[in-house]
């Protein structure tokens, strides 16, 4: 099963091109060991960047723009990442000193052509604190909206220095499925209610009430940040 997932990750990653993804340079077997050769980056993961700090709304917007654009591309190919988290978002340094965000690790990604045999109903897959309510119920139920939920949790963590749902493993699962998240304005007085509204939609329990695309998420966050900057 592990080898089949590796083969599928290689196939999915090879089909994704663009600034938000690592180029696949080759793959094969070295003896009995399967390998995939990826483009080499210099930089750090978002997880490393966030160690002991928070990001400004403008910095969060830059992260959101790039990650959302990459997810929209993946979703257009029918690929659901299922593990969007700071550890899988890499900030790659560019020769001009800028950074480009890369979405990494499609090891548990879901694709309609592949996934039915490997993901059993009720299976938990992904980084616990970033799972959507539907992903908590079953990894096979995760879709594009689930990835966008996870991205919203990433931005919440970047902005506030904490996750929206806290506790031990079981408590987190219950909170994700049934509890409301603390509004940003109740955690930081610097943040206005426009950002509250953004997260109410982005972290809606019912996926039908969330932003439909990454592009829509970005537009809403841009509006909230502009309102915050104008105050």
SSE layout and pairing:
Blueprint: H1 2-14, E1 24-30, E2 33-38, E3 43-45, H2 46-49, H3 57-76, E4 79-80, E5 89-93, E6 99-103, E7 110-111, H4 133-137, H5 144-160, H6 169-178, H7 184-187, H8 193-202, H9 214-230
Antiparallel strand pairs: 1-2, 3-5, 4-7, 5-6
Q: What kind of sheet is the major sheet? A: 3 strands, antiparallel
Main sheet: strand order:
3-5-6
Task: Give the structural class.
Answer: alpha+beta
Quaternary = single chain
Cα distance spanning the termini: 54 Å
- Individual helix count: 9
Total number of beta strands: 7
Mean pLDDT: 89
| SSE run | HEEEHHEEEEHHHHHH
Relative strand content: 5-15%
Q: Please give the radius of gyration in angstroms.
A: 18 Å
The best one-word shape is globular
Helix percent reads 40-55%
Poorly predicted regions are: none
Would you give an account of this structure?
By secondary structure, the protein is α+β, with helices and mostly antiparallel strands. 43% of the residues lie in helices and 13% in strands. The protein contains nine helices and seven strands. The strands form three sheets. Strands 3-5-6 form a three-stranded antiparallel β-sheet. A two-stranded antiparallel ribbon has the order 1-2. A two-stranded antiparallel ribbon has the order 4-7. Strand 1 and strand 2 form a beta hairpin.
